[in-house]
């Protein structure tokens, strides 16, 4: 058995399964492309946080942006998860999935008035504030509603996360967070506002980190700030290190979650701080695959193409970041392998999910694009008027459609001809 297969996506009797369900069977009933998630994989990744944190005051808030499917959120809500949101839409998803608003942190640089109102109404755990205008806006809204808003400041510690530049967020030049040099002054301002309760400090330096050092460098900077503020009478009760822990897509060796948590806990020492984390990718990336079918094989003088029914509109990571995803045949064939570019039908040269993959293929074969559970479906679009894929959650021997395939009628239903719907 290849090492690319996992406990959650095993090869059984020569065919790839999600837990106990053959992917072929799902393709026959639901069609392709489809995202398939494993409940057990989500639970296992969740436990990798929950177990080492069991005896430490903590809150783990799953980053909804990484996978916002209601079925997935429901699995996490049932495990007692908190949630990290960046929009009111994500908040409504969390509530619809059975999540607890009291365990929600509201992140993001551009929260709108109506979003702040709704979050206050729902009673979120705290707002991660990223600028002075945002702080003032929240004060005004909370005052208008006659409530108090709990906040932490998302500071930008100016630490290099050593990851892809597009997903690095903790450097001075990034739009995120409050400059560490200005943090004290802004805490004092926040502390003086009547409808603001300062409760924590927060940072998120980037995503897909494969080393502990940047996390610990950022933590040291946050802890120095926590101590300084305490000396001034501003005593924080939680410290939120954001998300960012990387996963293995190909050959990366990110730290184990418990190693990360142990290192963080050690540095916190005797400080009385609830530890908050906002993991996304490390909970769901390896809990999902994109199931797709080879439409046809095209051989040119220079290249072999496998043209599939999935495309960059379904999974944009390879086109956007040059990301690697393993691509496995659902029923591996024996025979001569050729190096294939795995491409979709979209009219863009960047429409590929993998390049130069050694595979033995025939028209109609099913392929599983692995590690697609995070930043997959959430970043899907209707480019080329392609309907977005179905999503299926597998739990042991059962499979539930947790999002039906989008139809052309779904897409057209939002639009109208000139004259049919005048603005005024
Ligand atoms: C504020 C914030 N928290 C959490 C996350 C989740 O990060 P990851 O999926 O890398 O764990 C992100 C995305 O990078 C983020 O921007
Ligand atoms: N979309 C990115 C991660 C972005 C993280 C957002 N805070 C990815 O697919 O890797």
From TrEMBL:
Organism ancestry: Bacteria, Pseudomonadati, Pseudomonadota, Gammaproteobacteria, Oceanospirillales
Its annotated pathway reads: Amino-acid biosynthesis; L-lysine biosynthesis via DAP pathway; L-lysine from DL-2,6-diaminopimelate: step 1/1
Under the GO molecular function aspect, what terms does this record hold? Answer: diaminopimelate decarboxylase activity; pyridoxal phosphate binding
Question: Which parts of the sequence bind substrate?
Answer: 281, 317, 321, 348, 375
Residues bound to pyridoxal 5'-phosphate: 244, 278-281, 375
Q: Which organism is it from?
A: Parendozoicomonas haliclonae
Query: Per the similarity annotation, which family is this?
Result: Belongs to the Orn/Lys/Arg decarboxylase class-II family. LysA subfamily.
Show the InterPro entries listed in the entry. Answer: Ala_racemase/Decarboxylase_C, DAP_deCOOHase_LysA, De-COase2_N, De-COase2_pyr-phos_BS, Orn/DAP/Arg_de-COase, PLP-binding_barrel
Q: Which residues form the Orn/DAP/Arg decarboxylase 2 N-terminal domain?
A: 40-285
The protein's UniProt keywords, in alphabetical order, are:
Amino-acid biosynthesis, Decarboxylase, Lyase, Lysine biosynthesis, Pyridoxal phosphate
Q: Which cofactor does it need?
A: pyridoxal 5'-phosphate
Provide the protein name. Diaminopimelate decarboxylase
Uppermost EC category: lyase
Q: Which CDD domains match?
A: PLPDE_III_DapDC
Describe the reaction catalysed, as an equation. meso-2,6-diaminopimelate + H(+) = L-lysine + CO2
Question: What does this protein's UniProt record list under function?
Answer: Specifically catalyzes the decarboxylation of meso-diaminopimelate (meso-DAP) to L-lysine.
Superkingdom of origin organism: Bacteria
């Amino acid at each position: 058995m290849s090492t690319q297969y996992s406990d959650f996506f095993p090869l059984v009797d020569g065919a790839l399964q999600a837990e106990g369900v053959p992917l072929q069977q799902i393709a026959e009933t639901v069609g392709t492309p489809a995202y398939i998630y494993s409940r057990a994989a989500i639970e296992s990744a969740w436990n990798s946080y929950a177990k080492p944190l069991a005896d430490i005051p903590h809150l783990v808030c799953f980053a909804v942006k990484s996978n916002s499917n209601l079925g997935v959120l429901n699995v996490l809500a049932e495990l007692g998860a908190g949630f990290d949101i960046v929009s009111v839409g994500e908040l409504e998803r969390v509530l619809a999935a059975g999540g607890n608003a009291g365990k929600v942190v509201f992140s993001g640089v551009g929260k709108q008035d109506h979003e702040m109102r709704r979050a206050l109404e729902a009673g979120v755990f705290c707002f991660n504030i990223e600028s002075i205008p945002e702080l003032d806006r929240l004060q005004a809204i909370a005052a208008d509603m006659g409530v108090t808003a709990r906040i932490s400041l998302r500071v930008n510690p100016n630490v290099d996360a050593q990851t892809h530049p597009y997903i690095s967020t903790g450097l001075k030049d990034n739009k995120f967070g409050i400059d560490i040099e200005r943090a004290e002054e802004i805490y004092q301002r926040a502390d003086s506002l009547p409808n603001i309760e300062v409760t924590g400090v927060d940072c998120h330096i980037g995503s897909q980190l494969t080393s502990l050092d940047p996390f610990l460098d950022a933590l040291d900077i946050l802890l120095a700030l926590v101590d300084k503020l305490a000396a001034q009478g501003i005593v924080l009760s939680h410290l939120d290190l954001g998300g960012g822990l990387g996963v293995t897509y190909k050959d990366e060796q990110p730290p184990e979650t418990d190693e990360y948590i142990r290192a963080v806990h050690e540095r916190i020492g005797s400080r009385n701080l609830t530890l908050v984390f906002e993991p996304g990718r490390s909970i769901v990336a390896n809990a999902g695959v994109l199931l797709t079918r080879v439409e046809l094989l095209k051989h040119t003088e220079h290249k072999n193409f496998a043209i599939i029914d999935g495309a960059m509109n379904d999974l944009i990571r390879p086109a956007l970041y040059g990301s690697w995803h393993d691509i496995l045949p659902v029923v591996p064939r024996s025979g001569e392998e050729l190096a294939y570019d795995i491409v979709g039908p979209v009219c863009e040269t960047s429409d590929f999910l993998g390049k130069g993959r050694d595979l033995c293929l025939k028209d109609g074969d099913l392929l599983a694009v692995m590690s697609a559970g995070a930043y997959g479906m959430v970043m899907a679009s209707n480019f080329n008027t392609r309907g977005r894929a179905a999503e299926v959650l597998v739990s042991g021997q059962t499979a539930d459609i947790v999002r039906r395939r989008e139809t052309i009628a779904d897409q057209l239903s939002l639009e109208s001809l000139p004259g049919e719907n005048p603005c005024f």
